[in-house]
Amino acid sequence: MKHKPVVAALLLLAPLTACGSAQAGDGSTVTVTVGYQSRTINTVTAGTLLRSLGYFEKELNALHDGKTYKVDWQDYATGAPITAQMTAGKIDIGSMGDFPLLINAARGKQLGKPTRLVSVTGYNLRGGLNTIVTSPDSKLASLKDLRGKKVSTSVGSAADGTLVRALQRAGIDPDQGIEKLNQQPAVGASALSAGSTDALSQFVAWPGLLAYQGKAKALYDGAELNLPTFHGVTAREDFAEKRPAVLEAFLKAQAEATDYLDDHPVAAAESVAKATGLPAEVVYLYNGAHGIATFDPAVKPQLVSALKQDVSVLKAAKLTGDIDVDSFVDDRYVKKALGSGYAARLAAKPSAAASEVWPKGASATRSFTSPSELLTYLSAHRDGIRAAYVPDATTGTLWFADKAIWVADGDRLLPFVAPETARAYVSAHGGARIVTYADALERAS
Predict the structure, then answer these.
(1) Contact (Cβ atoms closer than 8 angstroms) between residue 288 and residue 399
(2) Could you give the CA distance from residue 257 to residue 372 in angstroms, rounded to a whole number?
(3) Strands 385-391 and 366-368, how do they pair?
(4) Residue ranges of domains in the chain
(5) Do 132 and 160 contact (CB within 8 A), yes or no?
């Protein structure tokens, strides 16, 4: 997703205040500067969670090369300032979403300070990390209803890419058919609540957060595009060449943090929630055992292919020119860091989506084989539920059970993230109809 406004001018104007890589006078102390985005929770294995676990520091201490290492963790709201700091030599390693990664590549080349994509954090092969939402009382029911409306997004982000592509598929010119507002995610969220924008297209964790808070409802599930979206780790080329062992230590630590997240999803969600102020229930929606994001440091070919397709969107927005994605992607370091285990990670597939409940006071969740079984459980434990999640019947995107659009099809109860997807199912299945969540609970009981 697990991203950001990236107008070129902002990259140049971002304050260059980071410490950057530094050594003591005798060269025995090395400071490694890591830029991350705590609230962009699909980067946590290279940022928030990794920092809390201390794995990178542990790997650095294990180098035994006569040097003392210090890590300067710097938290940013978006990928743009991380790129600015990297091209100024102030940040060594950074993490961000796919579209900002491309701008990172373009700016690095333009300024003669090349960067390299060295690993992946969180991804979704269908594009489910981005969602278009509207206000809870909005009458908008489909993408076609956005024609002539105000839509907030962060230009140059993956969420903007989702908006552009979704509108094009709906037959709407993304430049002329809507009034696009280029806003930071928090500003766009406020604009939606204030009624000064009709819809908001954003990346993790904003759509889930606003839905959880009752401040928005989904209009379009990015997974309908069926195009991969991901977050990754970028490093300065000169840093990687000068200190390959340090970069490999980072990537080993990232893999360890990934394994921790996979083995302890609830504890990881609670840890990230504590560090970011996000509700743990929202973090788990994306980063949980069956969450929207899959975490894996391997640089999968289908993600590289998606990155190449993204270039055209940024070029059309005049944010970049051509980008040589193949020269930007450099998986040598992660392959060496993970050794024989890399091939298995590269071949690994996302876990199957499943319905899941997080009972109050529980340190573990419970999975169900079908949404109907989950509803049966919920109807019998209405006061004992912290959160319940269901996968969209068409795209597999996980969503909150009480925020989903439910369809009754005979004895089956099927959840959908967005109304348009639910209506498409009903149209294709005679006898199926949309029902309320309360009705779905009653039917399941």
Answers:
(1) no
(2) 34
(3) unpaired
(4) 8-125+228-347, 130-223, 355-444
(5) no
Neighbours of 128 (CB within 10 A): 32
- Report DSSP letters for 43-71, one per residue: GGGGTHHHHHHTHHHHHHHTT-SS-EEEE
Let me know if the fold of 8-125+228-347 is the same as that of 130-223.
Answer: yes
In the chain, count H helices and then E strands: 19, 19
Residue with the two structure tokens 């650095």 = 60
pTM over 0.85: yes
Q: What is the pLDDT of residues 154-207, one digit of tens each?
A: 999 999 999 999 999 999 999 999 999 999 999 999 999 999 999 999 999 999
Question: Considering the domain 8-125+228-347 in this protein, what is its CATH number?
Answer: 3.40.190.10
Helix axes 301-316, 98-110, angle to 10 degrees: 70
Backbone angles phi, psi at 27, to 5 degrees: 75, 10
Q: 276-292 pLDDT, tens per residue?
A: 999 999 999 999 999 99
**H or E element: which one contains 130?**
strand 130-134
> Cα(133)–Cα(353) distance, rounded to whole angstroms?
22
CATH architecture of 130-223: 3-Layer(aba) Sandwich (3.40)
* Helix/strand/coil for 435: strand
- With CA atoms as reference, report the closest residue to 211 among 157, 133, 268: 133
Cα–Cα separations (whole angstroms), residue 241 to 116, 235, 247, 248, 417: 11, 10, 9, 11, 45
Which amino acid makes up residue 168? Answer: Q
